[in-house]
Predict the structure of DUF8159 domain-containing protein.
Amino acid sequence: MNGAITGVEGELRSNGISVESLDTGEERVELVYLTAFPGESVNHTEIGRALRTFVGRVEADQWEPKRVDATVLRAEGDVQGTWRAEADWFRKYDRYELSDEDFSELVLNTLEGDE
């Protein structure tokens, strides 16, 4: 074994997401990541990079959409904010029933802790 991180965690990391924990359950994915932008508010571009990872897997038929619950940390134990993306939003986006802007707006409307 070479210690390489593969799968969705590896893809998130290759997109610049510093994964602290990732739990892929039957109904949802719980993602906790350490932000590269530890200011007052959650960085929207960083959210986009995380979402792009999941969208890419849906488009490649490598992932059946599930709800994604994300917790963004400034440092261990210091929560900057949370956001989520519903499974149905991924499906609608994949079927071109949601635009980039609409998908982003839905996710950003779930953002908590964003000052």
Observations:
- The CA atoms of residues 47 and 83 lie 8 Å apart.
- The mean pLDDT is 93.
- The longest helix spans residues 44-59.
